[in-house]
IBPL1 protein
Amino acid sequence: TEELPGDRVNMAVQVRGGPSKHEGIGWVLINPLMKEDEGIYQCHATNMAGEAHADGSITVIEENKSEKASL
């Protein structure tokens, strides 16, 4: 993707899981996405059958402003 002047950078993540009859959906929206948002994000789910955990990481790569100006 390419960020254009005036664009707002967003990050949206959607997860889905569970038996089809009881499938659950959860999501996170980071708006606007900034350098300080980078890191490890964790999802924890618990029900009568037990629990599950998942980790995901976000790395924000900042564009060189001089390169952006030359576009």
Residues 11-70 form one domain. The CA atoms of residues 18 and 24 lie 6 Å apart. The first strand starts at residue 11 and ends at 17. The longest helix spans residues 65-70.
